[in-house]
Predict the 3D structure of the following.
Amino acid sequence: MCGIIGCAASRDIVPDLLEGLRRLEYRGYDSAGIAVLNGGRIERRRVKGKIRDLEDHLRSSSVAGPCGIGHTRWATHGRPSEDNAHPHTDCTGTLALVHNGIIENYWALKERLRAEGHVFRTETDTEVIVHLLENHYNGSLEEAVRRTVAELEGSFAVACVSHREPDRIVAARNGPPVVIGHGSGESFVSSDITALLQHTRRVSYLADREIAVLTSSGVRCTTFAGEPVEKPVEVLTWEAEMIEKKGFAHFMAKEIFEQPDVVRDSLKSRLSLESGRVFLGDAGIDPKIFRDSKRVVLVACGTSYHAGLVGKYLLETLGRVPVDVEYASELRARDFTMDRGTLVLGISQSGETADTLAALRAVRDQARAVVAVTNSVNSTMAREADGVLNTHSGPEIGVAATKTFVGQMAALSLFALAFAQAKKTIGPEAVRPLIEELQRVPHKMETVLARAADIERVARNFLSCEHYLFLGRWINFPIALEGALKLKEISYTHAEGYAGGEMKHGPIALIDEGMTTLALVPRDRVYEKMLGNISEVQARGGRVLAVAFENDAKARNVAEEVFPIPEVHQLFSPFLTVLPLQLFAYYAAAAKGLDVDQPRNLAKSVTVE
Ligand code: F6R
């Protein structure tokens, strides 16, 4: 949460800071600011609000300079306000700093610094860092940072400048991600590569407990202890245009419609129809690990957790293995035990979610191996794992996850097939039809997306409905959870996801004409039971919408509206059933005029616990 950016060049970098902040805005968007070194002074501009508010402010109070830092905030300590917006400065106004993370010992430091005479002007934890810098500054910003980080407890990605060294930015990392961009005659630092793609595709990643000094002529890295570190430079394959809206009103809409291609990209070169085999060589997982694994534990948060549940049903059915799916935040709080034959999968689109990282670290010594299922193959999670299963979804800018969820389901489908193949729970003859069906999934997804206008019409007709129950069973139970989450997070409508069989154990008491039930009823092993659920809702005066196969007359008879999907193998129906739910949530939020891509109180990457 929070995005940091810095540029050191020999031209005015303010437009670059603003462009970078726009691309990082998904990480937090309650306040923003920049600090620029200009003629021996630090010029600072901050606002409560979004990057466009900062741009408006800069139109009336412009600033320019060749070196500077910027920040977009998701409040942790201190409410969103101009005073609490970063960059923060020291008592003398000669040092400025931006921070992503949480300083756990900030209160003790603040009391000590106050007693020493420092004057605090914000409610943030961050401000202690810049006052510590002030204490330690003795002509070298790099040394001041080294001494300062030695006093900090908690997680931090920081970038700072001093007016006495106007050509440089010093950055440090302990936890949240820091990416360095190597331009020609210019250097960049950012929380995320998406903010760098406009300038360079040559990047390196700061590791924990490392410091980088950036100038227009290059970047030098050391450890906190001062040892030099040679950073390999990687050349990114993502193109800058992948993070444009391409004519869609919102990133979320663009990302929903990209989903068939996400599945195509994920399957590419990993399936062979001829041999009936699945290849996950790119993930670096030794098939022996599959053979040795007696249990699988999937660890994730939010939407990634829902993908994990789909993965569980796939692995149970295909791999015949016991599978547990755990919320990362809960797993790390528990006295969790597993034997050495357990294979652990961390699922995270960002690969930086603090709870997921902590949970994986907590169990890694007990696990047979840890595999990262992620869209960020250079993320912390990927670097710490034994294998990395890339979800091939491309950059996702909308805060609500859509295409990365589908990318996770595709990766987990392949994983389940590869696992079953290695365990010999299914042979090539049984795998072949599943491969064929998976390859048909993207086209079937396109058929569903082509009917988006109908879903928009229904979403508009139901705008006055304030309560929703999403019902699904078996492999569509996680999709019911995901549909409810999407509606909640972007349209601020109360929605609950339930397993159909649980309805009569409580939620049925809520059913009346004010509650709409959205039922997932593809013709599968639980189809008749789902029809039973619908009848129970109708009998109590509830309204029903259903996602069902195109030719399903029974579903049409019982539901007020049906979102039709093509027939599909029961193991892969989630790829189709999730689409109407994403579109329903999207059109409901867009019709209400809400900020679809940046819903209130959320941030894309939850790097705090
Ligand atoms: C919801 C959403 C979140 C994330 C969760 C985990 O639309 O995006 O629930 O799924 O914060 O994030 P990652 O996958 O980055 O670990």
